[in-house]
């Protein structure tokens, strides 16, 4: 019986075996392997000597596997397939020991969602770095994905078909009124809201467009009410706290809301759907796949979540 520990079988012999079996002759196999015909013949002959059997019947028509040769060819295919899987597994594991995942996100997501996700990811893959690219506007997040500047993005849904997405949470828009407001319930009226100057994002901000369209659908125009245009969420909340005006913004962007500021639901509800996005038909690294897996289990306590 052949002792495995004493076997001198080489991978080059197995590759030669499969090539001869596929092409039916030694010369074609040699051409495909970029070897000389004598090298392939020697590889097969030495393999036959090692195993003590005849693997091919040689003739003018070429080389055809013997019955036992067919069995050996099957084993050789499995061996080389397992070798490929072993190397792929090693490469995958190695890729999780170093590298970078680039995340583009709106600032509220960076504040309330990413820290928990990064902490979990670092426990699983401590060698992978996370680069956070913060944007005021979700359209800039999508641009970063499209231009290859980011691997993963937090954006508003729905979006275009060029992205693969899934919903992670739903965030209600709330009205923030200054401490002097005298509200009787958690839902304000338009009259109570518009009794104050409005603080809104700049007109080229997608959040402002969403808000304006929502109000227009309720036959409300706010252009004459706008007193300040400010993009930084924390600045807006501080201005409301100081009594400079009122605002409408996503709750996640407003958190933490000072206790003196009145936060109430809109007369006509509005929400934004935040989702995770990657560019469709793009080859993602194992590190990115692992980070996406972590994101699927992360939720922020500050908002109402999708079921």
UniProtKB/TrEMBL annotation:
GTP-binding as UniProt keyword: no
Keywords of the record: DNA-binding, Transcription, Transcription regulation
Matches recorded under PROSITE patterns: HTH_LYSR
Superkingdom classification of source: Bacteria
HTH lysR-type domain sequence ranges: 9-66
GO cellular component, one term: cytosol
A Pfam family recorded for this sequence: LysR_substrate
Gene Ontology MF annotations: DNA binding; DNA-binding transcription factor activity
Family stated for the protein in its record: Belongs to the LysR transcriptional regulatory family.
Name of the protein this chain belongs to: Transcriptional regulator
Organism of derivation: Chroococcidiopsis thermalis (strain PCC 7203)
Taxonomic placement: Bacteria, Bacillati, Cyanobacteriota, Cyanophyceae, Chroococcidiopsidales
């Amino acid at each position: 019986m052949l002792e495995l520990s004493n076997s001198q079988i080489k991978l080059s012999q197995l590759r030669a075996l499969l090539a001869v079996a596929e092409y039916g002759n030694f010369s074609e196999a040699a051409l495909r392997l970029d070897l000389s015909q004598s090298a392939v013949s020697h590889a097969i002959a030495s393999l036959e000597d090692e195993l003590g059997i005849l693997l091919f019947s040689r003739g003018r028509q070429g080389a055809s596997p013997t019955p036992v040769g067919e069995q050996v060819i099957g084993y050789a295919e499995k061996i080389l397939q397992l070798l490929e899987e072993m190397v792929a597994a090693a490469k995958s594991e190695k890729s999780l020991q170093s590298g970078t995942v680039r995340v583009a996100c709106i600032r509220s997501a960076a504040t309330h969602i990413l820290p928990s996700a990064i902490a979990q990811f670092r426990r699983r893959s401590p060698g992978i770095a996370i680069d956070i690219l913060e944007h005021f506007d979700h359209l800039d997040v999508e641009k970063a994905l499209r231009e290859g500047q980011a691997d993963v993005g937090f954006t508003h849904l729905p979006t275009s078909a060029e992205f693969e997405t899934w919903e992670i949470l739903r965030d209600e828009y709330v009205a923030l009124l200054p401490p002097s407001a005298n509200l009787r319930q958690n839902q304000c009226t338009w009259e109570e809201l518009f009794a104050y100057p409005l603080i809104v994002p700049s007109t080229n901000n997608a959040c402002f467009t969403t808000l304006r369209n929502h109000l227009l659908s309720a036959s409300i125009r706010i252009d004459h009410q706008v007193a300040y245009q400010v993009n930084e969420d924390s600045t807006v909340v501080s201005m409301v706290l100081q009594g400079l005006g009122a605002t409408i913004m996503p709750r996640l962007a407003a958190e933490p809301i000072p206790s003196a500021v009145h936060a109430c639901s809109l007369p006509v509800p509005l929400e934004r759907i935040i989702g995770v996005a990657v560019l469709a038909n793009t080859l993602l690294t194992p590190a990115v796949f692992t980070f996406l897996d972590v994101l699927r289990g992360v939720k922020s306590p500050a908002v109402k979540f999708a079921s």
